[in-house]
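Re: the 413-residue chain
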Amino acid sequence: MPEAGSLSPRLTIFTAGVYPDVLRIWYACIRRSFPAADVAVEIFDDSGCGALLPEWFPGATVLGPGPGRRDYQEAYNDALARAATPYLAFVDCDVFWLSRDLWPWLAGELAHPGVAAVACVSRHDRRSHGTFAVVFKTEVYREVLAGLPGGFSPAITGLDLAVERSQWRWSDTADLATEAVLASGREIRLLHLDERGDLVVFDSITLIRRLVEIVGAEAYAARQGGGRLFWHGCAGNLVLGRLHDRLFPEGPAYGFQSSWLLLLRQLGRRGPKKALWRLRYAARLRAAARRIEAYLEPAPRRRGVQRNPSARPPAQVLRPGECHVEQRFGSATVNRGAVLMSCEWDGGLFEAGVMLGGVFRSGEFRGGTFSGGVFAGTWTGGSWGGGYDRNGRYRPRNAPPVPAAPESSPDPA
C-alpha cells in the first residue's frame, strides 16, 4: 500500500480471510481510513484454493500458505516474525474501519513507553484483545512471545478426557498472548470503539458461510432451529451481500448460499421475544451497512443477484447429506459421509464426512475432514483442518497428531 518513493510505513495491517467479496469491502474501508504512505497491508489467503486475486486488492500483499503459515492461526505468528514496521495491527476481515482520525490517535497512545497495545475491539468475557482490531508494538510482542510456546495460537489448558469439556480452560486466538504481555508489566488498553461507531463489527460471517456451504442452509437451520449463531451469520452475510453488489457492480456477485426467505421462516421458532430481537438485530445490520456505504461513497446499486441453491435436509444417521449437532457416538458407529458439529466420538470408525469442533475421544479416523476440535483417537488418514491434540496443543492445517511409534521388542537372548 505504501507508494513508490514514499517514506517507510510505520504500520503493517494484517488480516486473514477466505472470501474475496467480504475482503473487498474490508480493504476499501482500510484504504479510505489510512494514509497510503504510512501503512502496508498484508492479506493471508486462507481459502485453500487461491481465491484472493491480487488485482482485487491493489497495493496490498496477498500471501498464500507456506512454511510457518500453514493456516490462519500460524499466519498471525508469521506476520509478527516478518513485520518490518514498528507497529503491527491485526484487523479481522469482518471488522470494518470507518474513521480517518483513529490511526493518528492510536499512534499517539502507543507513543507512551509503557503502552504495548491498544485494542479497538476487545473480548467481553475475558481480558483479551483477540485479533478483532488491535494495534501493538512489534518489538515488545516479539520479545514477550519469544517465551510463549504457540504465540498467538489458541490452546486448551487443563485438558483431561476424564472430565467434562466444560471444565477445560479454552483460550481463543491471542488470549494467552494478551496475558503474557500484561504479565510482563506492560499496559494494554482494552477498548470497545465499535460501540461509539469508529468501527463496525459483523459476527460469525466466515464460520456460518463455511457451514452453509458444507451442510446446506436448510439443513443447518433445521438442526439449529434458527439459533443466535445462525441468525448472526446468515443475516450478516445477506446484508453484506447486498452492500457488496452495490459497491462492486462489475462483480463477481457475493456468493452466500441462502436467502431472507429462509430467515423469515425461522423468525418465530423461539417465541415472540426472540423474533423481536432478531428483527431489531437485522435492522442494526442494515443500518451498519448504510454507514459503510456512506463512508465509501460507492457506485450505483446493482440489481438482480440470485443466490438460493437447493439444500437437502438431514436424513438417516451418519450418511452423506446428514448433519448431527452436539450428539455422542460410540464404538458401533461408522461415519460414511455425515457432518458432525460439536459432537463427541468415542470408539467408532470415521471413514468419510466432516467433524467440526467437538471431541474425538477414541476410535480410528480413516478419511474425511477434522477441524477445530480435540483429537485423542488414532489418525490413519483424512484431511486435518486444524485442531487440538490430546495435550491441548493446537496443531495447524495439514499437521494431524502423529500416531505414537510402537515400542521395539528387545532382542532375544
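The longest helix spans residues 272-296.
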